Amino acid sequence: QLQLVESGGGLVQPGGSLRLSCAVSGRTLDYYAIAWFRQAPGKEREGLSCISKWGGATDYLGSVKGRFTMSRDSAKNTVYLQMNSLKPEDTAVYYCAAADSLIGICVLSPRGYDKWGQGTQVTVSS
Q1: Please, which residues have CB within 8 angstroms of residue 53's CB and are 6 or more apart in sequence?
Q2: What is the pLDDT of residue 55?
């Protein structure tokens, strides 16, 4: 049974940085496309970044490209989301998700993923 556990959220001032982690257990993450999503109160879940199986392809939401960087450490079975230049509108619960059905690609739609972590809160405020 694949499990995803996010960590690293918290309160940060505008312009600050955070690095989120998504620890994967139960199977090596290389067999999965992994994505980061966020959901703010009253809004739909939004795809931020994704990486395909074996890391061959990546994609980013336009509004976070250049500020957010996704990476994976296969040895630690962990995926990261480095977030820089944070803005108040980045405040949300952040989730990682996995899919083993995506071959050679990843997608930013939540419908593409069937395994989810519990989420970690990120609050950007002065």
Answers
A1: 30, 31, 32, 33, 100, 102, 103, 104
A2: 80
